[in-house]
Amino acid sequence: MSDFNRRKFLEGSAGVAAAAALGTGGTLFAPHVMAQQTLTYKPEKGATLRVLRWSRFVQGDIDAYMANVKKFTEKTGIPVRVDNEGWEDVRPKAAVAANTGAGPDIILSTNDDANLYPDKLLDVTDLGEYLGKKYGGWYPAAQQFNKPDGKKWIAIPLGASGSLVVYRESAVKAAGFDTFPKNTDDFLKLMKALKEKGTPGGMALGNATGDGLWCNWLVWAFGGKLVDQNNKVVIDSPETARALEYGKELYATFIPGTLSWLDPNNNKAFLDGQIALTNNGISIYYAAKNSADPKVKEMSADINHAVFPIGPVGTPTESHLYFNQMIMKYTKYPQAAKEFLRFMMEQEQFDPWQTGAGGYVAPALAAYAKGNIWTVDPKHTPYRDSVKNLRPAGYAGKLGYASAGAAADFIVVNMVAEAVSGSKSVKEAMERAQKRAERYYRV
Protein backbone atom coordinates (compact mmCIF):
# COMPACT_ATOMS: atom_id res chain seq x y z
CA MET A 1 0.00 0.00 0.00
CA SER A 2 3.01 2.31 0.01
CA ASP A 3 2.45 2.89 -3.72
CA PHE A 4 -1.13 3.87 -2.87
CA ASN A 5 0.00 6.40 -0.30
CA ARG A 6 2.62 7.94 -2.59
CA ARG A 7 0.33 8.39 -5.56
CA LYS A 8 -0.56 11.91 -6.62
CA PHE A 9 -3.02 12.84 -9.29
CA LEU A 10 -3.74 15.86 -11.41
CA GLU A 11 -7.39 16.88 -11.41
CA GLY A 12 -8.99 16.15 -14.78
CA SER A 13 -9.92 19.38 -16.56
CA ALA A 14 -9.85 20.92 -19.99
CA GLY A 15 -6.33 21.59 -21.15
CA VAL A 16 -4.55 19.12 -18.87
CA ALA A 17 -2.13 17.20 -21.04
CA ALA A 18 -1.56 14.03 -19.03
CA ALA A 19 -1.47 12.55 -15.59
CA ALA A 20 1.63 13.09 -13.52
CA ALA A 21 4.05 10.23 -13.05
CA LEU A 22 2.93 8.14 -10.09
CA GLY A 23 4.70 6.21 -7.37
CA THR A 24 7.43 3.95 -8.67
CA GLY A 25 6.77 4.47 -12.35
CA GLY A 26 3.34 5.92 -12.71
CA THR A 27 0.36 5.82 -14.99
CA LEU A 28 0.49 8.10 -17.98
CA PHE A 29 -2.82 8.79 -19.70
CA ALA A 30 -3.08 10.19 -23.18
CA PRO A 31 -3.81 13.93 -23.39
CA HIS A 32 -7.30 13.40 -24.80
CA VAL A 33 -8.21 11.25 -21.82
CA MET A 34 -7.42 13.82 -19.14
CA ALA A 35 -8.68 16.76 -21.23
CA GLN A 36 -12.26 15.55 -21.40
CA GLN A 37 -14.87 17.47 -19.47
CA THR A 38 -16.24 15.56 -16.48
CA LEU A 39 -19.84 14.40 -16.56
CA THR A 40 -21.66 15.33 -13.37
CA TYR A 41 -25.05 14.49 -11.92
CA LYS A 42 -27.11 16.54 -9.48
CA PRO A 43 -27.82 14.30 -6.47
CA GLU A 44 -31.26 14.47 -4.93
CA LYS A 45 -31.70 16.53 -1.77
CA GLY A 46 -31.26 14.40 1.35
CA ALA A 47 -29.84 11.48 -0.63
CA THR A 48 -28.31 8.50 1.15
CA LEU A 49 -26.91 5.40 -0.54
CA ARG A 50 -26.54 1.77 0.39
CA VAL A 51 -24.07 -0.40 -1.52
CA LEU A 52 -23.95 -4.22 -1.44
CA ARG A 53 -20.73 -5.68 -2.76
CA TRP A 54 -18.86 -8.95 -2.70
CA SER A 55 -16.53 -9.47 0.21
CA ARG A 56 -12.83 -8.99 -0.07
CA PHE A 57 -10.24 -11.63 -0.81
CA VAL A 58 -7.63 -8.87 -0.74
CA GLN A 59 -7.70 -6.49 2.23
CA GLY A 60 -6.23 -3.64 0.19
CA ASP A 61 -9.28 -3.79 -2.08
CA ILE A 62 -11.75 -2.85 0.63
CA ASP A 63 -9.34 -0.42 2.32
CA ALA A 64 -8.88 1.57 -0.91
CA TYR A 65 -12.57 1.24 -1.81
CA MET A 66 -13.68 2.60 1.55
CA ALA A 67 -11.15 5.43 1.31
CA ASN A 68 -12.86 6.45 -1.94
CA VAL A 69 -16.29 6.13 -0.33
CA LYS A 70 -15.19 8.47 2.44
CA LYS A 71 -13.82 10.89 -0.15
CA PHE A 72 -17.17 10.82 -1.98
CA THR A 73 -19.12 11.57 1.19
CA GLU A 74 -16.77 14.40 2.11
CA LYS A 75 -17.19 15.92 -1.33
CA THR A 76 -20.96 15.49 -1.72
CA GLY A 77 -22.29 15.17 1.83
CA ILE A 78 -24.05 11.94 0.84
CA PRO A 79 -23.76 9.17 3.48
CA VAL A 80 -22.90 5.78 1.96
CA ARG A 81 -23.34 2.45 3.75
CA VAL A 82 -21.33 -0.45 2.31
CA ASP A 83 -22.25 -4.06 3.11
CA ASN A 84 -19.81 -6.85 2.20
CA GLU A 85 -21.10 -10.37 1.48
CA GLY A 86 -19.63 -13.52 -0.05
CA TRP A 87 -20.14 -14.03 -3.78
CA GLU A 88 -22.62 -16.84 -3.22
CA ASP A 89 -24.63 -14.59 -0.87
CA VAL A 90 -24.72 -11.50 -3.09
CA ARG A 91 -26.56 -13.25 -5.94
CA PRO A 92 -29.67 -14.36 -3.98
CA LYS A 93 -29.83 -11.08 -2.08
CA ALA A 94 -29.65 -9.16 -5.35
CA ALA A 95 -32.42 -11.32 -6.81
CA VAL A 96 -34.64 -10.71 -3.80
CA ALA A 97 -34.01 -6.98 -4.01
CA ALA A 98 -34.85 -6.94 -7.73
CA ASN A 99 -38.06 -8.91 -7.24
CA THR A 100 -39.31 -7.08 -4.16
CA GLY A 101 -38.24 -3.61 -5.24
CA ALA A 102 -36.44 -2.88 -2.00
CA GLY A 103 -32.88 -3.10 -0.76
CA PRO A 104 -29.47 -1.67 -1.69
CA ASP A 105 -29.33 1.17 -4.19
CA ILE A 106 -26.20 -0.23 -5.82
CA ILE A 107 -25.11 -3.86 -6.05
CA LEU A 108 -21.69 -5.10 -7.14
CA SER A 109 -22.22 -8.62 -8.40
CA THR A 110 -20.57 -11.25 -10.56
CA ASN A 111 -20.54 -12.65 -14.08
CA ASP A 112 -23.83 -12.42 -15.97
CA ASP A 113 -26.05 -11.49 -13.01
CA ALA A 114 -27.26 -8.19 -14.49
CA ASN A 115 -28.94 -10.15 -17.28
CA LEU A 116 -31.12 -12.00 -14.78
CA TYR A 117 -33.34 -8.94 -14.29
CA PRO A 118 -32.39 -6.17 -16.76
CA ASP A 119 -35.83 -4.54 -16.47
CA LYS A 120 -35.19 -4.01 -12.75
CA LEU A 121 -32.02 -2.01 -13.36
CA LEU A 122 -31.55 1.70 -13.96
CA ASP A 123 -30.51 2.70 -17.46
CA VAL A 124 -26.90 3.91 -17.18
CA THR A 125 -26.20 4.41 -20.87
CA ASP A 126 -25.09 8.02 -20.43
CA LEU A 127 -22.53 7.04 -17.80
CA GLY A 128 -21.31 3.98 -19.72
CA GLU A 129 -20.75 5.97 -22.89
CA TYR A 130 -19.03 8.80 -21.03
CA LEU A 131 -16.55 6.51 -19.28
CA GLY A 132 -15.82 4.57 -22.45
CA LYS A 133 -15.02 7.70 -24.43
CA LYS A 134 -12.87 9.17 -21.68
CA TYR A 135 -10.82 6.10 -20.77
CA GLY A 136 -9.85 4.38 -23.99
CA GLY A 137 -12.98 2.32 -24.57
CA TRP A 138 -14.56 -0.71 -22.94
CA TYR A 139 -13.24 -4.16 -23.78
CA PRO A 140 -15.68 -6.25 -25.86
CA ALA A 141 -16.53 -8.69 -23.05
CA ALA A 142 -17.59 -5.82 -20.79
CA GLN A 143 -19.97 -4.60 -23.48
CA GLN A 144 -21.33 -8.11 -24.00
CA PHE A 145 -22.09 -8.45 -20.30
CA ASN A 146 -23.54 -5.02 -19.57
CA LYS A 147 -24.66 -3.72 -22.98
CA PRO A 148 -26.29 -6.91 -24.26
CA ASP A 149 -28.40 -5.31 -27.01
CA GLY A 150 -25.50 -3.15 -28.21
CA LYS A 151 -27.36 0.04 -27.30
CA LYS A 152 -28.41 0.25 -23.66
CA TRP A 153 -26.07 -0.10 -20.68
CA ILE A 154 -27.85 -2.02 -17.91
CA ALA A 155 -24.87 -1.89 -15.53
CA ILE A 156 -21.40 -0.37 -15.33
CA PRO A 157 -18.48 -2.79 -15.72
CA LEU A 158 -15.96 -2.85 -12.89
CA GLY A 159 -13.44 -5.45 -14.08
CA ALA A 160 -12.58 -9.08 -13.51
CA SER A 161 -10.58 -11.26 -11.19
CA GLY A 162 -8.42 -13.40 -13.42
CA SER A 163 -8.81 -17.17 -13.21
CA LEU A 164 -5.17 -18.05 -13.84
CA VAL A 165 -2.88 -20.90 -12.86
CA VAL A 166 -1.10 -20.20 -9.57
CA TYR A 167 1.91 -22.43 -8.99
CA ARG A 168 5.10 -23.00 -7.01
CA GLU A 169 8.05 -22.48 -9.33
CA SER A 170 10.26 -24.89 -7.37
CA ALA A 171 7.69 -27.68 -7.66
CA VAL A 172 7.23 -27.17 -11.39
CA LYS A 173 11.00 -27.27 -11.94
CA ALA A 174 11.35 -30.37 -9.76
CA ALA A 175 8.69 -31.98 -11.95
CA GLY A 176 10.93 -31.45 -14.98
CA PHE A 177 9.58 -28.21 -16.46
CA ASP A 178 11.77 -25.12 -16.80
CA THR A 179 8.82 -23.05 -18.04
CA PHE A 180 5.11 -23.43 -17.52
CA PRO A 181 3.43 -25.61 -20.17
CA LYS A 182 1.74 -23.83 -23.05
CA ASN A 183 -0.52 -26.69 -24.23
CA THR A 184 -2.91 -29.15 -22.62
CA ASP A 185 -0.79 -32.23 -23.37
CA ASP A 186 2.20 -30.86 -21.52
CA PHE A 187 -0.03 -29.51 -18.76
CA LEU A 188 -1.33 -33.01 -18.07
CA LYS A 189 2.24 -34.32 -18.00
CA LEU A 190 3.11 -31.64 -15.45
CA MET A 191 0.11 -32.48 -13.26
CA LYS A 192 1.03 -36.17 -13.28
CA ALA A 193 4.64 -35.36 -12.41
CA LEU A 194 3.57 -33.06 -9.57
CA LYS A 195 1.51 -35.84 -8.05
CA GLU A 196 4.38 -38.32 -8.37
CA LYS A 197 6.69 -35.85 -6.60
CA GLY A 198 4.25 -35.50 -3.72
CA THR A 199 3.37 -31.90 -4.61
CA PRO A 200 -0.04 -32.32 -6.27
CA GLY A 201 -2.37 -29.69 -7.65
CA GLY A 202 -6.06 -29.20 -7.09
CA MET A 203 -8.86 -27.06 -8.53
CA ALA A 204 -12.36 -26.40 -7.22
CA LEU A 205 -15.18 -28.66 -8.40
CA GLY A 206 -17.85 -27.44 -5.99
CA ASN A 207 -20.23 -24.57 -6.78
CA ALA A 208 -17.44 -22.01 -6.64
CA THR A 209 -18.40 -18.76 -8.36
CA GLY A 210 -14.83 -17.82 -9.24
CA ASP A 211 -12.64 -20.86 -8.90
CA GLY A 212 -15.04 -23.16 -10.76
CA LEU A 213 -14.45 -21.15 -13.95
CA TRP A 214 -11.58 -23.42 -14.97
CA CYS A 215 -14.31 -25.84 -16.09
CA ASN A 216 -15.26 -23.43 -18.88
CA TRP A 217 -11.62 -23.39 -20.02
CA LEU A 218 -11.58 -27.21 -20.02
CA VAL A 219 -14.67 -27.55 -22.21
CA TRP A 220 -13.76 -24.72 -24.58
CA ALA A 221 -10.15 -25.85 -24.98
CA PHE A 222 -11.40 -28.97 -26.75
CA GLY A 223 -14.02 -27.20 -28.85
CA GLY A 224 -17.04 -27.82 -26.63
CA LYS A 225 -19.56 -25.11 -25.78
CA LEU A 226 -22.80 -24.79 -23.90
CA VAL A 227 -24.65 -23.17 -26.82
CA ASP A 228 -23.97 -22.27 -30.43
CA GLN A 229 -24.30 -18.82 -32.01
CA ASN A 230 -28.07 -19.28 -32.27
CA ASN A 231 -28.37 -20.09 -28.55
CA LYS A 232 -29.08 -23.73 -29.31
CA VAL A 233 -27.81 -25.98 -26.51
CA VAL A 234 -24.98 -28.14 -27.86
CA ILE A 235 -23.09 -29.21 -24.72
CA ASP A 236 -23.77 -32.92 -25.44
CA SER A 237 -21.14 -33.24 -28.16
CA PRO A 238 -18.02 -35.20 -29.18
CA GLU A 239 -15.91 -32.13 -28.37
CA THR A 240 -17.26 -31.94 -24.83
CA ALA A 241 -16.72 -35.67 -24.44
CA ARG A 242 -13.03 -35.28 -25.36
CA ALA A 243 -12.72 -32.48 -22.83
CA LEU A 244 -14.25 -34.61 -20.09
CA GLU A 245 -12.05 -37.61 -20.89
CA TYR A 246 -9.04 -35.31 -20.54
CA GLY A 247 -10.57 -33.94 -17.35
CA LYS A 248 -10.74 -37.45 -15.88
CA GLU A 249 -6.98 -37.81 -16.29
CA LEU A 250 -6.46 -34.35 -14.84
CA TYR A 251 -8.71 -35.02 -11.85
CA ALA A 252 -6.76 -38.20 -11.05
CA THR A 253 -3.78 -35.96 -10.20
CA PHE A 254 -5.75 -33.72 -7.81
CA ILE A 255 -5.47 -33.75 -4.04
CA PRO A 256 -8.56 -35.46 -2.51
CA GLY A 257 -11.51 -33.30 -1.56
CA THR A 258 -11.80 -30.89 -4.51
CA LEU A 259 -15.38 -31.97 -5.27
CA SER A 260 -16.55 -29.96 -2.27
CA TRP A 261 -14.20 -27.00 -2.68
CA LEU A 262 -15.71 -23.52 -2.80
CA ASP A 263 -13.79 -20.32 -3.49
CA PRO A 264 -11.81 -20.11 -0.20
CA ASN A 265 -10.69 -23.75 -0.11
CA ASN A 266 -7.89 -23.75 -2.66
CA ASN A 267 -6.42 -20.55 -1.19
CA LYS A 268 -6.11 -22.27 2.17
CA ALA A 269 -4.76 -25.52 0.68
CA PHE A 270 -2.10 -23.65 -1.30
CA LEU A 271 -0.95 -21.44 1.58
CA ASP A 272 -0.90 -24.48 3.89
CA GLY A 273 1.48 -26.22 1.46
CA GLN A 274 -1.01 -29.00 0.64
CA ILE A 275 -0.94 -28.20 -3.09
CA ALA A 276 1.60 -26.67 -5.43
CA LEU A 277 -0.78 -25.63 -8.21
CA THR A 278 -4.34 -24.36 -8.50
CA ASN A 279 -6.42 -21.77 -10.36
CA ASN A 280 -7.14 -18.48 -8.65
CA GLY A 281 -7.00 -14.75 -8.74
CA ILE A 282 -3.93 -12.92 -7.46
CA SER A 283 -5.21 -13.18 -3.88
CA ILE A 284 -3.01 -16.17 -2.96
CA TYR A 285 0.13 -14.29 -3.93
CA TYR A 286 -1.13 -11.14 -2.20
CA ALA A 287 -1.87 -13.05 1.00
CA ALA A 288 1.57 -14.66 0.98
CA LYS A 289 3.39 -11.37 0.41
CA ASN A 290 1.51 -9.68 3.25
CA SER A 291 1.44 -12.58 5.69
CA ALA A 292 2.60 -12.14 9.27
CA ASP A 293 3.84 -15.73 9.18
CA PRO A 294 7.49 -15.70 8.02
CA LYS A 295 7.16 -19.12 6.36
CA VAL A 296 4.13 -18.07 4.35
CA LYS A 297 5.71 -14.74 3.44
CA GLU A 298 8.80 -16.58 2.22
CA MET A 299 6.56 -18.66 -0.05
CA SER A 300 5.66 -15.57 -2.11
CA ALA A 301 9.07 -15.61 -3.81
CA ASP A 302 8.26 -19.09 -5.12
CA ILE A 303 4.76 -18.27 -6.41
CA ASN A 304 4.12 -17.43 -10.04
CA HIS A 305 1.17 -17.14 -12.42
CA ALA A 306 0.30 -18.28 -15.94
CA VAL A 307 -2.71 -18.22 -18.22
CA PHE A 308 -4.29 -21.60 -18.83
CA PRO A 309 -2.66 -23.72 -21.57
CA ILE A 310 -4.09 -23.83 -25.08
CA GLY A 311 -6.02 -26.94 -26.05
CA PRO A 312 -6.68 -28.67 -29.39
CA VAL A 313 -8.77 -25.72 -30.63
CA GLY A 314 -5.47 -23.82 -30.98
CA THR A 315 -6.63 -20.54 -29.42
CA PRO A 316 -6.77 -19.19 -25.83
CA THR A 317 -10.04 -19.97 -24.06
CA GLU A 318 -9.89 -17.78 -20.97
CA SER A 319 -12.73 -17.65 -18.45
CA HIS A 320 -12.51 -15.08 -15.64
CA LEU A 321 -14.71 -13.84 -12.82
CA TYR A 322 -16.39 -10.70 -14.11
CA PHE A 323 -17.69 -7.91 -11.87
CA ASN A 324 -20.48 -5.47 -12.62
CA GLN A 325 -22.05 -2.52 -10.81
CA MET A 326 -25.85 -2.37 -10.92
CA ILE A 327 -28.07 0.53 -9.88
CA MET A 328 -31.48 -0.81 -8.93
CA LYS A 329 -34.38 0.93 -10.62
CA TYR A 330 -36.27 1.22 -7.34
CA THR A 331 -33.66 3.55 -5.83
CA LYS A 332 -35.04 6.83 -4.54
CA TYR A 333 -31.79 8.53 -5.46
CA PRO A 334 -30.88 7.64 -9.08
CA GLN A 335 -28.82 10.79 -9.66
CA ALA A 336 -26.85 10.27 -6.47
CA ALA A 337 -26.25 6.62 -7.39
CA LYS A 338 -24.99 7.54 -10.85
CA GLU A 339 -22.74 10.21 -9.36
CA PHE A 340 -21.32 7.65 -6.95
CA LEU A 341 -20.40 5.22 -9.73
CA ARG A 342 -19.01 8.03 -11.89
CA PHE A 343 -16.85 9.23 -9.01
CA MET A 344 -15.58 5.73 -8.20
CA MET A 345 -14.72 5.02 -11.85
CA GLU A 346 -12.80 8.25 -12.49
CA GLN A 347 -9.04 7.90 -12.70
CA GLU A 348 -8.40 9.87 -9.50
CA GLN A 349 -10.24 7.17 -7.54
CA PHE A 350 -10.00 4.10 -9.72
CA ASP A 351 -6.24 3.98 -10.10
CA PRO A 352 -5.49 4.12 -6.34
CA TRP A 353 -8.18 1.49 -5.75
CA GLN A 354 -6.73 -0.73 -8.49
CA THR A 355 -3.32 -0.33 -6.87
CA GLY A 356 -4.63 -0.94 -3.37
CA ALA A 357 -6.26 -4.16 -4.56
CA GLY A 358 -2.83 -5.36 -5.67
CA GLY A 359 -3.95 -6.33 -9.16
CA TYR A 360 -6.89 -8.41 -7.94
CA VAL A 361 -9.29 -6.74 -10.37
CA ALA A 362 -8.24 -6.34 -14.00
CA PRO A 363 -9.76 -3.27 -15.67
CA ALA A 364 -12.62 -3.23 -18.15
CA LEU A 365 -11.51 0.15 -19.51
CA ALA A 366 -8.45 0.03 -21.75
CA ALA A 367 -6.76 3.12 -20.29
CA TYR A 368 -6.52 1.54 -16.85
CA ALA A 369 -4.40 -1.31 -18.19
CA LYS A 370 -1.58 1.26 -18.20
CA GLY A 371 -1.66 1.47 -14.42
CA ASN A 372 1.63 1.08 -12.59
CA ILE A 373 0.28 -1.89 -10.63
CA TRP A 374 0.52 -4.14 -13.70
CA THR A 375 4.26 -3.64 -14.22
CA VAL A 376 5.67 -2.81 -10.78
CA ASP A 377 5.79 -6.57 -10.15
CA PRO A 378 6.07 -8.90 -13.18
CA LYS A 379 3.99 -11.48 -11.32
CA HIS A 380 1.03 -9.09 -11.59
CA THR A 381 1.22 -8.73 -15.36
CA PRO A 382 -0.48 -12.02 -16.38
CA TYR A 383 -3.68 -10.79 -14.71
CA ARG A 384 -3.77 -7.41 -16.46
CA ASP A 385 -5.59 -8.47 -19.64
CA SER A 386 -8.21 -10.70 -18.03
CA VAL A 387 -11.16 -8.62 -19.25
CA LYS A 388 -9.50 -7.98 -22.60
CA ASN A 389 -9.11 -11.72 -23.21
CA LEU A 390 -12.28 -12.83 -21.42
CA ARG A 391 -14.70 -15.19 -23.13
CA PRO A 392 -18.12 -14.88 -21.41
CA ALA A 393 -19.59 -18.06 -19.94
CA GLY A 394 -22.50 -17.83 -22.40
CA TYR A 395 -20.13 -18.54 -25.29
CA ALA A 396 -20.87 -18.91 -28.16
CA GLY A 397 -24.38 -17.53 -27.82
CA LYS A 398 -25.89 -14.18 -26.99
CA LEU A 399 -25.89 -13.12 -23.37
CA GLY A 400 -29.19 -12.65 -21.59
CA TYR A 401 -31.45 -14.29 -19.05
CA ALA A 402 -30.66 -17.81 -20.29
CA SER A 403 -26.88 -17.44 -20.10
CA ALA A 404 -27.11 -15.77 -16.70
CA GLY A 405 -29.39 -18.48 -15.32
CA ALA A 406 -27.28 -21.33 -16.67
CA ALA A 407 -24.10 -19.83 -15.19
CA ALA A 408 -25.75 -19.19 -11.83
CA ASP A 409 -26.94 -22.82 -11.81
CA PHE A 410 -23.34 -24.11 -12.24
CA ILE A 411 -24.38 -26.41 -15.10
CA VAL A 412 -20.91 -26.70 -16.66
CA VAL A 413 -19.13 -27.04 -13.31
CA ASN A 414 -21.52 -29.78 -12.18
CA MET A 415 -21.14 -31.65 -15.47
CA VAL A 416 -17.36 -31.60 -15.20
CA ALA A 417 -17.44 -32.69 -11.55
CA GLU A 418 -19.79 -35.60 -12.29
CA ALA A 419 -17.82 -36.85 -15.28
CA VAL A 420 -14.25 -36.50 -14.02
CA SER A 421 -15.04 -38.02 -10.62
CA GLY A 422 -16.87 -40.97 -12.16
CA SER A 423 -20.13 -40.35 -10.32
CA LYS A 424 -21.69 -40.36 -13.77
CA SER A 425 -20.40 -41.53 -17.11
CA VAL A 426 -19.22 -38.89 -19.55
CA LYS A 427 -22.36 -39.45 -21.62
CA GLU A 428 -24.67 -39.27 -18.62
CA ALA A 429 -23.06 -36.06 -17.39
CA MET A 430 -23.38 -34.41 -20.80
CA GLU A 431 -27.01 -35.50 -21.21
CA ARG A 432 -27.90 -34.11 -17.79
CA ALA A 433 -26.16 -30.81 -18.56
CA GLN A 434 -27.97 -30.65 -21.92
CA LYS A 435 -31.38 -31.06 -20.27
CA ARG A 436 -30.64 -28.58 -17.51
CA ALA A 437 -29.42 -25.95 -19.99
CA GLU A 438 -32.45 -26.44 -22.24
CA ARG A 439 -34.68 -25.35 -19.37
CA TYR A 440 -33.06 -21.91 -19.63
CA TYR A 441 -32.56 -21.77 -23.38
CA ARG A 442 -36.16 -22.36 -24.42
CA VAL A 443 -36.70 -21.90 -28.15
TrEMBL record:
SUPFAM superfamilies: Periplasmic binding protein-like II
Major subcellular location class: periplasm
Alphabetical list of InterPro entries matching this protein: Bact_solute-bd_prot1, SBP, TAT_signal, TAT_signal_bac_arc
Subcellular location: Periplasm
Keywords, comma-separated and alphabetical: Signal, Transport
Source species, domain of life: Bacteria
Coiled coil regions, renumbered to chain: none
GO cellular component, one term: periplasmic space
PANTHER family: ABC TRANSPORTER PERIPLASMIC-BINDING PROTEIN YCJN-RELATED (PTHR43649:SF34), ARABINOSE-BINDING PROTEIN-RELATED (PTHR43649)
Membership in a protein family: Belongs to the bacterial solute-binding protein 1 family.
Protein name, entry field: Extracellular solute-binding protein
Species whose genome carries this gene: Piscinibacter koreensis
